[in-house]
Amino acid sequence: MINKGMFTSNKHDYSTPQDFFDKLNAEFHFTLDPCATAENAKCKRFFTPEQDGLAQWWNGNVFMNPPYGREIGRWMKKAYEECILCHNCTVVVCLVPARTDTAWWHDYAMKADEIRYVKGRLKFDGKSPAPFPSAVVIYRC
């Protein structure tokens, strides 16, 4: 069964599968989740939509599962700029759809230090597999 909502921008806050996050966290030891809600935050320190992570300075080891709607380009720009501007980030790890045909992918993801393509389809919110492939984009600051 296809989750039609994942083809649209109606829902932006799909929660990262915990086991997937745990594997990345074991490697990177995340300290900040800049685009989260109290319900889906993966780190002790996080920014809610009201705090607007795009307007904050990031620091530490950052895990970002950005909103997958039209705003994703702004989040990827922020992730890239936080590393090149050296606002005290060590690493920024982004879980994003592997949308290699988009402007944001070419403008920001392709400038990453590493891109890991996820085998298979992730199940966000414990539901049906996503109708798109995912990638982990890593900026080492």
What do these coordinates show?
By secondary structure, the protein is α/β, with parallel strands linked by helices. The chain has a single domain (4-140), classed as Vaccinia Virus protein VP39 (Rossmann fold), CATH 3.40.50.150. It has helices spanning 18-28, 72-84, 103-107; strands at residues 32-33, 45-46, 60-64, 89-97, 114-117, 134-140. The strands form 2 sheets. Strands 3-4-6-5 form a 4-stranded mixed beta sheet, covered by helices on one side. It is globular and about 35 Å long. The termini are far apart.
> Quick one: CATH superfamily?
Vaccinia Virus protein VP39
Helical region count? Answer: 3
- Can you tell me the residue ranges where pLDDT is under 50 for at least 5 consecutive residues? 1-9
Q: State the major sheet.
A: 4 strands, mixed
Tally of individual domains: 1
Cα distance spanning the termini: 40 Å
CATH architecture: 3-Layer(aba) Sandwich
Helix content: 10-25%
Summed over residues and divided by their number, the pLDDT gives a mean of 88
CATH class: Alpha Beta
Q: Topology of this protein?
A:
Layout: H1 18-28, E1 32-33, E2 45-46, E3 60-64, H2 72-84, E4 89-97, H3 103-107, E5 114-117, E6 134-140
